[in-house]
Design goal:
Elements: E1 7-11, H1 15-26, E2 31-35, H2 38-47, E3 52-56, H3 64-73, E4 82-86, H4 91-100, E5 104-107, H5 112-165, H6 172-200, E6 209-212, H7 213-223, H8 225-230, E7 234-237, E8 243-246, H9 248-264, E9 271-279, E10 282-289, H10 296-299, H11 322-333, E11 337-343, E12 347-355
Parallel strand pairs: 1-2, 1-3, 3-4, 4-5, 7-9
Antiparallel strand pairs: 6-8, 9-10, 10-12, 11-12
């Protein structure tokens, strides 16, 4: 978060105060929005949530204390820092404001330097809190995968191996194939986990160059052909050319994960299509399947590290939810975007957009 991306809502019924505050903070590069009443403030917040609110205490109809009280009662807005603007310096009023959840006070008439310092401090503090929250979510996801997904994987391998070494009448070749498949799943999980961990700790840096997208796609189709054959899936690519400027290893990982997911969630005799088209200065790469689709309420969970969301494939293939998070991080690290469109029961289309080679 920086000044250019930080949005500050100023709530004051006095036009002169709005002008003074607006001029002072605009010079510092902050994005501003304004409200002249508590009711108008809530309408503004519903349209776009600000990073900080400067809130006048003495307003008609709904004073600043009541606005703050209602904000803190709403889980969606409770974490927005509020700085009160007031001419009141009575100890009781100051304490009341802090008890309601305000983070600071600025007294009238405003001192520009003091105002700027307090605003900047709380914007930075909010950014730090968000980074800590993200770090905790990353840690929790990491240990969840180790404890749950790798644990289940090894339990399965141990169980299959016990059948093989025990005195059981089993189809040993079938069990060997199951062990091989589970081992490959574990290897893929570990690769994603290690790469994601390196990216989070800053040890994995993008090294962009001009890439031959067709070669990357064709190589991954070949790599995953055995998975597709087991379901009798038709995979084809219409990509003939298209050079993008990105890190080869990262984009290869993204294509592999998206294609693997498409195979995983497409039932027997289905189809997966890979295509590309130019969108301005970017190239959009699309992976479309005829799979089970995604529930609309689950789509927004797919790329969030702090939301646990995993789904088994059509052949009961396990998932961790880590692959798409890794894809998002890799694509954004290379200056691109990722998105998804889906219809339940009809299939999904995942797409990434990357800068093209000049």
């Amino acid at each position: 978060m920086n000044k250019k991306s930080s949005l500050i809502l100023i709530v004051d019924d006095n036009p002169h105060n709005l002008k003074v505050l607006g001029n002072t903070l605009t010079k510092m590069g902050y994005n501003l929005t304004f409200a002249k009443s508590g009711a108008q403030a809530f309408k503004t917040i519903l349209k776009k949530k600000p990073d900080l609110i400067l809130l006048d205490v003495m307003m008609p109809e709904m004073d600043g204390f009541e606005v703050c009280r209602r904000l803190k009662q709403n889980a969606a807005f409770a974490k927005i820092p509020v700085i009160f603007l007031t001419a009141q310096t009575e100890k009781e009023k100051v304490i009341e404001g802090f008890q309601l959840g305000a983070v600071d006070y600025v007294t009238k008439p405003f001192n520009a330097e003091e105002l700027i310092t307090r605003v900047h401090t709380h914007i930075k503090l909010k950014e730090t809190v968000e980074q800590l929250r993200q770090a905790n979510a990353t840690k929790d996801k990491f240990f969840s995968i180790i404890a749950h997904d790798l644990g289940n994987l090894f339990n399965g391998l141990i169980g299959l191996t016990e059948f093989l070494v025990g005195d059981y009448k089993v189809d040993k070749e079938q069990f060997m194939q199951m062990i091989l498949q589970n081992s490959k799943i574990g290897q893929g999980l570990l690769k994603n986990l290690l790469e994601w961990s390196r990216l989070q700790t800053g040890r994995l840096k993008a090294q962009p160059s001009g890439l031959n997208l067709k070669m990357i796609v064709d190589n991954n189709i070949s790599l995953l052909s055995a998975q597709a054959m087991r379901k009798n899936l038709n995979i084809f690519s219409s990509i003939e050319k298209g050079d993008v400027f990105a890190d080869e290893h990262m984009i290869n990982t993204v294509i592999r994960n998206l294609l693997s997911n498409a195979i995983k969630f497409t039932p027997q005799n289905g189809q997966v299509e890979i295509s590309s088209q130019q969108e301005g200065a970017e190239l959009e790469i699309s992976i479309k399947d005829t799979g089970v689709g995604i529930d609309p309420q689950d789509i927004e969970k797919l790329f969030k590290i702090d939301v646990s969301h995993t789904t088994k494939g059509t052949a009961n293939e396990p998932g961790t939810g880590l692959g798409l998070i890794l894809c998002k991080d890799f694509v954004e690290t290379n200056g691109g975007t990722i998105g998804v469109e889906s219809d339940m029961g009809k299939g999904s289309r995942f797409y990434i957009r990357l800068p093209m080679t000049n």
